[in-house]
Give the backbone structure.
Amino acid sequence: MKDERKILIGGIVSLALLYLVPTYMGYIWIGLFSALIGAGVYLVLLYKMGKKDYREASSERTTIILFSLLLISSVVIFSFDYYQADYQRDILREVRVTIDSSIIEAEVRSELLEVYREYMLANQKSDRSVLEVAVDFFGDRLEDNNKLRVKTIELEEDLNFSYKKDQASDSFSIYVTAELSKSRSKDFKNWDGSAGLFQTKTTLSSEGVSHERQN
Amino acid sequence: MKGKTNNLLPWISSILIAIIIIGALTLIPDSVTHSNAYNVLVPNSFPSAQVLGLSVIESINEFSGETEVPSYYKESRIGIAVSILFMFVIIPFLFVKGTLQSEKRENPTALWYVGSALLLLVISTSIIKGGIKMSVHQNTRDSAQISRTYDLMRTELTDVSFIVVEQVLELNDIEEMSKISTENIPEVKKSDYQYRMVTNPQDTSVTISISSNQVSDFTATTIIRPYSDQIFKYQRTYSK
């Protein structure tokens, strides 16, 4: 009787600790799998306790079968749910990158294409550099700290727009960093000082507009 | 034969008790099952599904830029702990204890019925719900793959459209528009999709469509007017 109580209380305390400690540190899945390992140990001890006092062999067999089924099905389901959580997080990140990418194309690449159109039309009459046309086009939307104000101001809540003028190559680049889009490389250093975020670089030169995903 | 039937009878009763418990749980109104107290105090035979739910909420928060931790988060963690303790500690204990008692009395006791019914309930719901989840997940994967293909096609079409606009802008004479062809664009050459382009020098417009054998019901089209205020017009067509 004393042993039974010890096993029951020991099981409750150890499984609760194995689950709650990592969970409160922010690692809920580690907590869940630690508890599962703890459950394996507990079930073995419980089986041994039963085996010691069982009178019939069938009770022993039934306990083994049911405990094994409980553990195996839990390992499979827990692993599958973990995989699913990972999969859903990746899908949501992918969707976020797709949304940000489309917004950037519509906002930045399209505008630079308009600048390119102006550049092509301007050069039918006079000789103007890409930078001159770009600076005229954006006007006071080009801030001194290299920040670019975009037409749709609400976009600046989630996206950082910066510009770079390159006199030597007569080109004008816009860098966009998406604050909510974790992207391919975690170590990538973003233009705005953050790391691992989705970033594009769109460059206007006399050759046209090039657009690349940098991370 | 009679001995075998006698051995099976308690198990049949346990299965019936498990079915009655499931039936009773389904009768609980939604207003109760959705309450915080219910989620914390009533164990779930699927603690990993509860954790999955929290992970999905975290992912959605990351997606939307929400930084505040929802208030029910703490309560859910306690609820999951209760589920784990019931599933792996208390129910197996009741079963072993009930088996020992039943052997002594040579008849199944109430404790054995409770322990075995709950253990069967936990195992069977795990297996059944697990199977359903795996099949649903496969369907989700398939539809995600289709959406991914739509997105790739749209992205590629956008890329090609930008290139075509530049080519039109670089022409000395608009009549030369008919010479523009997608075949000379590297992105099209290496593409897995099929392109169709129609130029119209009269209104300086170009129409480019993209389609794929992978998603035969979907076509995306951009109508390009390089000299108008709205350079691109994007259309999607889903056929049955």
User: Anything to note?
Assistant: The two ends of chain B are 60 Å apart (CA to CA). Residues 77 and 193 of chain B are 48 Å apart (CA to CA).
